[in-house]
Each structure stands twice: as C-alpha cells, then as structure tokens.
Amino acid sequence: MESMTGRLLVATPALKDPNFDRTVVMLVAHEPGGALGVVLNRATEVPVSDVLGTWGTLARDPAVLFEGGPVQPESAICLARMRAQRPRMRGFHPVSGSIGTLDLSIDPDALREKLTCIRVFAGYSGWSPGQLEEEIASGSWFVFDALPGDAFVDRPDDLWPMVLRRQGGILSAVAHFPADVALN
C-alpha cells in the first residue's frame, strides 16, 4: 500500500455523508492500520486565542478553530508550517514538506521563530483499515497532491472549487457542480 499522507481528499458530488459535503481533507496519516485527516475548509467562529491563548497569535487568518471532522470533536490537532524544512524539531511531526502536526503542549513562544503559521482543528476524520480505499474506489473522493498553502488559505470556503479548478480538464468543471443537486 502506498501512503497517501500529505495528499488531499476532495469530496466528489457523489459523496452522500453530510459531514463531508464539499470538503477538502488533508491526510496527516495513512498507514495499514487506517487513515487520519483534517477538514481544511470548515472554519468555525471560535477564535483560537479563546481556547488556546497565545497559540492564537500564530494562527493564520482566519484565526479560528476549524472542524477537523466528526471524530473526537473535543480533541485538537494542529497543523503547522515551518519557516524552512528541518529534519527534526521537538513536537513537530512532518506530513508533507514544511507542513506537519504540532504538539500543542509545547510553549508557543519557544517555536515562534521556527513557524510561519498554524491552524487548529477540533476533531478529525478517521478511516479504519481499507475503508478509505473503498470510498475512493466507489467514487466518493478525488485524491490530489496538496500545494504548500492549501492548509492555510485565507478563504477556506473557496478551497473546494479552487482545488478542483486547478486540476484542469473535466475535473475543473466539477468545481461548478450545483450544491443542491442530488445524485442517485
């Protein structure tokens, strides 16, 4: 099995689960034991600073919590972008290039010079072994390479059509698929 860690899952119009309607998910882990990702385009109105204090100063606009997915919404996963690719940094687990998950128990002031920004997700999206592969095969997800800025876009509501449009061809037309049309 080839790992899809760091890649984007883009919900197709055929995906029936309302938790994932028009979502873009970044996979932060994809292993034989299953997959874990965070929804990049579901911002809440809760400021990061209201929940995590000084971490809010490192959060990219919009500096709010994001709904990472339906699993354990009381937990937090932090994506961070390092200023330069470094092989090792305490509490940082690489996902793709300079982007990785970050341990929020570390003092944010100790990392301020090493990071360009963070995004914090309440909850996550998870798949049991083989489940994600079955969903992809059934046409629920497109799988695309992520660009470094995808996890930190200023207008997360525009991410779904933006990722589809940049694929070109027929996939760019999917970006204009009406939200209220049901597929049978």
UniProtKB/TrEMBL annotation:
One of its GO terms (cellular component) is cytosol. Coiled coil: none annotated. InterPro entries: AlgH-like. Signal peptide: none annotated. It holds the Pfam family DUF179. PANTHER family: UNCHARACTERIZED PROTEIN YQGE, UPF0301 PROTEIN YQGE. Belongs to the UPF0301 (AlgH) family. NCBIfam families: PRK00228.2-2. This is UPF0301 protein DFJ67_0896.
